[in-house]
Amino acid sequence: MTQRIAIVTGGSRGLGKNAALKLAERGTGIILTYNSQRQEAEKVVSEIELKGVKAVALQLNVAESNTFADFVKEVKAQLKDVWQRDSFDYLLNNAGTGIDVLFAETSEAQFDEMMRIHLKGPFFLTQQLLPLMKNGGRILNVSSGLARFALPGKAAYAMMKGAMEVLTRYQAKELGERGISVNIIAPGAIETDFGGGVVRDNEQMNRAIASQTALGRVGLPDDIGDAIAALLSDELRWMNAQRIEVSGGMFL
Ligand SMILES: NC(=O)c1ccc[n+]([C@@H]2O[C@H](COP(=O)([O-])OP(=O)(O)OC[C@H]3O[C@@H](n4cnc5c(N)ncnc54)[C@H](OP(=O)(O)O)[C@@H]3O)[C@@H](O)[C@H]2O)c1
Question: What residue ranges carry the coiled-coil annotation (predicted)?
Answer without folding.
Answer: none
